[in-house]
Amino acid sequence: MTGLENDIKLLIQVQELDAQIQNLDTEIKRIPEEMDAHYRSFKAKKDELTVLESELVEIQKNRKLKEVELDSGTEEIKKYKTQQTSVKTNKEYTSLQHEIEQIQEKNSILEDEILSLMEQSDTAHENIEKKAEEIKLENGKLEREEQENKKKIARFEQELQKRQKERKNLVITVDSAIVAKYERIRDLKNGIGIVNISDGTCGGCHMELPPQIINDAKTGNGITVCERCSRILYVAESD
Ligand SMILES: [Zn+2]
What we know:
Bound molecules: zinc ion
Largest sheet: 3 strands, mixed
Strand order of the largest sheet: 2-1-3
Number of domains: 2
Shape: rod-shaped
């Protein structure tokens, strides 16, 4: 194996490590972002609960007002009925009777409204309980997720350090000019700096390669690159 062949072989390993490092790095960044999204939707649920609770307070306040109004109506009726026992004329009696009937009518409407508010209050209670249960479950789920993710990130970080160390040790064994060339192309080309030739085409951009280039890559006289995407080319051993 020539020096170049060996360098190419090592470079392929470097690229594999780079892909692993890139994946680990992406995961380490992605997990907290995903958690943030979960926490945002959790907060939205809690906000919904706050709205439901304040709606219930409104319903209860309204009901209280109606009850006070109903009580005072009932008191008034009592008062007029007492007055009826001591009136002197029929006219006075009828006039009081008229007052009583008007209040009774109003009270009947109030009773209906109170009933409806009681129903609304029951529904609101149910919705609050449902939402609170959802939140409780979600909270437990998030806590477990948070714990798992912490462990996962710690594992990934450990793995990342290991791979970075491996890469460092590997890369010093490769011709530094070739490494520099690889890194330059890798940074420009989405993490892929070295590709194999498969079926006479570049494994990176899939352009058909001139026979001369393929031959150069096979004989290993200096680094061969794809004319189109500039990636370093190599011939896989089986080809
Ligand atoms: Zn190419």
